[in-house]
Structure formats: structure tokens, C-alpha cells
Design brief:
Layout: E1 4-9, H1 12-23, E2 30-34, E3 51-57, H2 60-71, H3 77-98, E4 103-109, E5 113-120, H4 124-127, H5 132-145, E6 154-159, H6 162-184, E7 188-189, H7 195-205, E8 211-216, E9 223-228
Parallel strand pairs: 1-8, 5-6
Antiparallel strand pairs: 1-3, 2-3, 4-5, 7-9, 8-9
């Protein structure tokens, strides 16, 4: 089944760029259709111009393979060792400073990423509202891991199984909202989400025969819109 996504912008070029950036693909990987705009009335002439485009991924398997190859580059043993040491030095001090309770961490790698897991009795403050603190800490760890390393090292942080729990919640939300859209025949705009969370929504509904998903807006307030297929 073809994956269809909708994107918008002030111009067709901006809408296309937003779509390609969100999907992580190149122009050659998608079929682009500029959707017909509604005729603007005199009273709406001062409203911001919005152009919508539809993107169909030509070959899902091929596109995904290209994306994986682009994103995944095997790290050298030296880079993994240096990045791990950098993270260890930071976490040994950081975790003692932010909590009086014992917090444990583990570091592993899968040749492509450095995986950091933090566990403890009270880790909610590290996770924050819907993972905001977790994502900020992950960004910080990535910066620290790359210190004095020529290769680009990506760090994936998980705290007390939050990633798995959040993914389940988002997948259930996607299914529930999709059913509501089909029932009411009205599109629904979700609250702003990170690229990681938007991807979960898109992936969950990409094979749904009745609805399509699109991302609109600018970071960090980019949102997923779920609407009926035409």
C-alpha cells in the first residue's frame, strides 16, 4: 500500500521542503502533487497564504533502505570507547548532583548508536513532562559523547522504560483518533510532538486504508494531522 502524506507551507516550495524534511527523503523518492487551493474571498485576502502538497512514497521498501543507510553508519571501536568514557565521566558526577537517591546507569552499543539506560526509584524529574527533560538530557549526552571525536556519535537515552511506555500510549492514541476521524469525517490536529513521536504516529497509521497523516507547522511546535483519505 502506498504511503500518502500531506504537508503545507506559504509556498509550494516550502511545503515540499517541509515534507521531505519530515520524511527524511529526497525528491526522487516521492511523487508530489500540489493540491488545488480553495478560491479566496475578498474577506480572507489578508489571511496567510497556505499551499498544500500531497506526497506519495514511490517505493516504501527502497526508500526505507535508503533512509537506514543514510542514518546508520557503523562506528569504529575507538569512537565507541571514547564516547562511552565521555558519557561515564559525566554521568558519574551528574547523577550524584541531581538526586540524593541511588540512580544506576548502563551503557551499550549496537555498532551504530550508543544506548544509555538510567534506572532508579524516582526518575520522573529526569523524564519531565512528556519526556521533555529526557530529550534535553539525550541532546546533552550526544554533545558530550562527541567531544574530541571525529566521527558523529548518536546517543539514545531511555529512563525507566519511558520510551516503550510512551510508544504504546502514542500508538493507542493514533488508533483511537483514526477511528474518531472515520466516524465524524473531520480531521483532528494533535498537540505538538517531537520528530521521534510524530514518526510513531505516522508509522502506526501508514497502512490504514481510511485515514492519512501529515505534519504541519514549524519546530518545536510541529503537529500531526489525521484526516480522511479522499
Amino acid at each position: 500500500m502506498e504511503e500518502i502524506h500531506l504537508y503545507e507551507g506559504k509556498t509550494s516550495t516550502e511545503a515540499i521542503q517541509n515534507g521531505l524534511k519530515d520524511l527524511g527523503l529526497k525528491k526522487d523518492d516521492v511523487e508530489i502533487t500540489i493540491l488545488k487551493e480553495e478560491k479566496r474571498s475578498f474577506f480572507s485576502i489578508l489571511e496567510p497564504r497556505i499551499v498544500k502538497v500531497e506526497m506519495k512514497i514511490k517505493d516504501t521498501k527502497k526508500s526505507n533502505e535508503k533512509k537506514i543507510i543514510k542514518e546508520k553508519k557503523e562506528l569504529s571501536k575507538e569512537a565507541i570507547l571514547m564516547a562511552t568514557n565521555n558519557i561515564q565521566k559525566f554521568l558519574d558526577k551528574f547523577l550524584k548532583q541531581v538526586s540524593s537517591e541511588e540512580l544506576n546507569y548502563s551503557i551499550s552499543d549496537d555498532k551504530y548508536y550508543i544506548n544509555v539506560t538510567i534506572e532508579g526509584n524516582n526518575t520522573n524529574f529526569l523524564i519531565g513532562y512528556r519526556g521533555e527533560n529526557l530529550n534535553a538530557l539525550q541532546t546533552l549526552l550526544s554533545s558530550i559523547a562527541n567531544k574530541e571525536i571525529e566521527e558523529k556519535v548518536r546517543v539514545i537515552l531511555n529512563i525507566s522504560g519511558y520510551r516503550e511506555k510512551r510508544k504504546k500510549i502514542l500508538e493507542e492514541l493514533a488508533e483511537k483518533v483514526a477511528k474518531t476521524v472515520v466516524k465524524t469525517k473531520k480531521k483532528i490536529v494533535l498537540e505538538p510532538m517531537s520528530a521521534y513521536e510524530r514518526k510513531i504516529i505516522h508509522s502506526k497509521l501508514q497502512n490504514n486504508s481510511k485515514v492519512i497523516t501529515e505534519s504541519i507547522g514549524e519546530e518545536p511546535n510541529r503537529k500531526v494531522v489525521i484526516s480522511l483519505k479522499k
